[in-house]
């Protein structure tokens, strides 16, 4: 398969744009967190996402409750909750409550959990990958029922729910959308089975480093094809998301790409596993790197959607301001 092949058979979706925040010291702490979300709303972002870590950031569930009443239109979500931190029955109650308080604006993102250090520090068991995926599969099955306001009876290997009815009834019907991200085949298959929104992410190493080979357009198309094959008939109902990790506004794209490759050769950024040598063209075509003028980046985002079907674009908190003018160019397309 080549990157020139388009993965989806379904018509292309309109763009949506996600900002996010943690409320960490670099963002001004928890006190400025609400203003960050309000700024995203003012810029025209469609959603505001909160990650789930035990380090110096806000609690996502509590923060969503605050944002539900502090914002008006922007959708609110998690990117993503670590399943091992919460029992799905408790999470369903929290999520339903947030959906009601926000008048139907919740997007619930959940994953298997990947930061072993946090589990260890908290004294929470960090299972092998296969077991974490098994638990997430069961949790998503339970959430699907409870978030519809229905009675759940579930006898699984890891969770048992007996006669519990989901409440309060969420504002959205049939339930708030579920979002699951993944890079490897097992997680992508799980996401294809359960999720309304699938976040397509590059593969990481066992130590949590991002594999450079995974950021190319070719590898991204391959991951979308895995989702398509696993989802079958429901693929047309899945919205595909990706997050741009680096945004550089410049009128010399090639020079900046060359500088990025030189930095990789010197070991920067340290969280990157340089397992291949990429060309300038591969860097500039990567869905996860946006380099150029506002118009050039807008064209790049259009090209990503055309080749992969991914239409839901996320950016990191520190790059929310830089990307805002690009939203103006793409809004409504």
Features:
single chain; 333 residues; alpha/beta; 8-stranded parallel β-barrel; two-stranded antiparallel sheet; 11 helices; disordered N terminus
Layout of helices and strands:
Blueprint: E1 16-20, H1 33-43, E2 47-50, H2 60-70, E3 75-78, E4 81-82, H3 88-101, E5 106-111, H4 116-122, H5 129-146, E6 151-155, E7 160-165, E8 178-182, H6 185-194, E9 197-200, E10 210-211, H7 217-231, E11 239-244, E12 246-249, H8 253-265, E13 272-273, H9 280-285, E14 289-292, H10 294-308, E15 312-315, H11 320-330
Parallel strand pairs: 1-2, 1-15, 2-3, 3-5, 4-5, 5-8, 8-9, 9-11, 10-13, 11-15, 12-14
Antiparallel strand pairs: 6-7
Query: How do the strands line up in the largest sheet?
Result: 1-2-3-5-8-9-11-15
Total DSSP E strands: 15
Q: Structural class of the secondary structure composition?
A: alpha/beta
SS element count, helices: 11
The average pLDDT value, as a whole number, equals 93
Oligomer: single chain
Kindly state the percentage of residues in helix. 25-40%
Strand content: 15-25%
Low-confidence blocks of residues: 1-6
What spatial form do the alpha-carbon principal axes imply?
A: globular
How far the N terminus sits from the C terminus, by CA atoms, comes to 28 Å
Q: How many whole angstroms does the radius of gyration measure?
A: 19 Å
- How do the helices and strands follow one another from N- to C-terminus? EHEHEEHEHHEEEHEEHEEHEHEHEH
Main beta sheet strand tally, sense and closure: 8 strands, parallel, barrel
């Amino acid at each position: 398969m080549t990157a020139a092949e388009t993965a989806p058979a379904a018509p292309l979706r309109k763009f949506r744009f996600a900002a996010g925040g943690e409320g960490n010291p670099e963002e001004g702490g928890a006190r400025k967190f609400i203003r960050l979300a309000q700024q995203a709303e003012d810029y025209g972002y469609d959603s505001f996402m909160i990650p789930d870590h035990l380090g110096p950031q806000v609690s996502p569930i509590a923060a969503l409750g605050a944002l539900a009443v502090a914002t008006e239109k922007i959708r609110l979500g998690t990117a993503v909750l670590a399943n091992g931190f919460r029992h799905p029955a408790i999470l369903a109650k929290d999520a339903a409550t947030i959906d009601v308080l926000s008048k139907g604006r919740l997007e619930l993102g959940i994953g298997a959990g990947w930061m072993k250090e946090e589990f260890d520090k908290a004294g929470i068991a960090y299972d092998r990958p296969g077991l974490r995926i098994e638990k997430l599969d069961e949790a998503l099955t339970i959430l699907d029922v409870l978030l519809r306001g229905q009675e759940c009876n579930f006898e699984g290997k890891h969770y048992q729910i007996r006669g519990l009815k989901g409440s309060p009834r969420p504002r959205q019907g049939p339930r708030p959308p579920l979002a699951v991200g993944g890079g490897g085949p097992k997680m992508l298959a799980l996401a294809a089975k359960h999720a309304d929104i699938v976040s397509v992410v590059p593969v990481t190493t066992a130590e949590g480093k991002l594999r450079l080979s995974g950021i190319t357009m070719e590898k991204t198309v391959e991951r979308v094809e895995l989702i398509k094959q696993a989802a079958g008939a429901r693929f047309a109902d899945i919205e595909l998301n990706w997050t741009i990790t680096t945004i550089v506004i410049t009128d010399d794209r090639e020079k900046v790409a060359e500088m990025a490759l030189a930095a990789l050769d010197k070991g920067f950024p340290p969280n990157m596993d340089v397992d291949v040598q990429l060309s300038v063209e591969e860097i500039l075509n990567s869905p996860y790197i946006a380099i150029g003028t506002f118009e050039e980046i807008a064209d790049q985002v259009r090209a990503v959607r055309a080749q992969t079907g991914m239409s839901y674009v996320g950016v990191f908190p520190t790059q929310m301001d830089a990307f805002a003018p690009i939203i103006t160019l793409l809004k409504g397309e």
